Amino acid sequence: MRKFNAIKNAVNFGKGKKKMVYSFRQTNSGGYYCQPAKYIIVKDAKDSEHATEIALKSGMYLSGVAAGSDCSCCGDRWNGVNDEWDTMENALLAITHEDVRQDSVESDGVQHYIVVDDLDVTDTVLE
């Protein structure tokens, strides 16, 4: 019986903890947006810290004013986690709502959003 419980525990290891979806919103510091997108959606993150690591690897940066890359009067372009969602559907509904999209209507060449996960970031770095 003890052997069976050990196998059962090994099979179930990591199950039960739901991975979340996090969004990161870019402000138009200096009056313009930058690549990779206005929103970075990170799926299947373990927690907000893990999501931030993935977003940073996909093109987000923090403390832009202090680094001199963002406008001091407009503030930092990226400010960490904007929202947390339990499903991708809910995250996309929130950022594609008409009121949100009207800010993204300009043809500035910057996508409205991208969706990334740990595997996408790894693939991007290796290419």
Structure in words:
By secondary structure, the chain is α+β, with helices and mostly antiparallel strands. The protein has one domain (16-121). 36% of the residues lie in helices and 19% in strands. It contains six helices and four strands. The protein has helices at residues 2-12, 48-57, 64-67, 88-95, 98-101, 118-126, and strands spanning 20-25, 37-45, 83-85, 111-116. Strands 3-1-2-4 form a four-stranded mixed sheet. The protein is globular and about 40 Å long. The N and C termini lie far apart (48 Å). The model is unreliable at 3-14 and 123-127 (pLDDT under 50).
Structural class given helices, strands, pairing?
Answer: alpha+beta
Termini separation: 48 Å
The largest pleated sheet is described as:
4 strands, mixed
The arrangement of helices and strands along the chain is: HEEHHEHHEH
| Total number of domains | 1
Q: DSSP helix count?
A: 6
- Global shape: globular
Low-confidence stretches: 3-14, 123-127
Round the Cα radius of gyration to an integer and report it. Answer: 18 Å
Q: Strand content of the residues, in percent?
A: 15-25%
What's the rounded overall pLDDT mean?
81
Helix content: 25-40%
Oligomeric form of this entry?
single chain
Biggest sheet, strands in spatial order?
Answer: 3-1-2-4
